[in-house]
């Protein structure tokens, strides 16, 4: 029986990888067989990966979503609820402007 290799999110959640390690994981995907999507290779959903592409700063929110077994959108919504009223509009506008339109990166392998 072969043991499943930990993906980036598994390592990040256990504190065994920094946020910067995601670049090494992406490089490994580019050099690999490409049998799975890049977001699956990283341990993310398509929605999470799409958000991360637009704003890498959402990685802690993606990690929180994994820990709490919730969608990243729920986490983002609850995080904006914790902001002061004056900051909520700006935060909501920023997040809502990040419409989910996943990029098809698998086809652009080098």
How is this structure best described in words?
- This protein is mainly alpha-helical and 110 residues long.
- The protein has one domain (8-102).
- The chain is built from seven helices and no strands.
- The radius of gyration is 15 Å and the shape is elongated.
Report the helical percentage: 55-70%
Average per-residue pLDDT, rounded, comes to 81
Q: What is the C-alpha radius of gyration, as a whole number of Å?
A: 15 Å
The helix/strand order is HHHHHHH
The count of DSSP E runs of length 2 or more, i.e. the number of strands, is 0
From the spread of the alpha carbons, the general shape counts as: elongated
* Major β-sheet profile: none
- Supply the number of helical segments: 7
| Overall domain count | 1
Q: Terminal Cα separation, in Å? A: 32 Å
Strand content: under 5%
Q: What class, by secondary structure content? A: mainly alpha
Low-confidence stretches: 101-110
């Amino acid at each position: 029986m072969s043991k499943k290799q930990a993906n980036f999110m598994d390592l990040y959640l256990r504190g065994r990888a920094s946020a910067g390690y995601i670049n090494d994981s992406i490089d490994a995907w580019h050099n690999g067989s490409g049998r799975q999507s890049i977001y699956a290779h990283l341990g993310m959903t398509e929605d999470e990966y799409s958000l991360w592409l637009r704003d890498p700063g959402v990685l802690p929110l993606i990690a929180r979503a994994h820990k709490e077994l919730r969608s990243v959108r729920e986490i983002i919504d609850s995080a904006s609820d914790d902001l002061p009223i004056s900051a909520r509009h700006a935060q909501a506008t920023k997040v809502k402007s990040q419409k989910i339109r996943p990029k098809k990166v698998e086809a652009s392998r080098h």
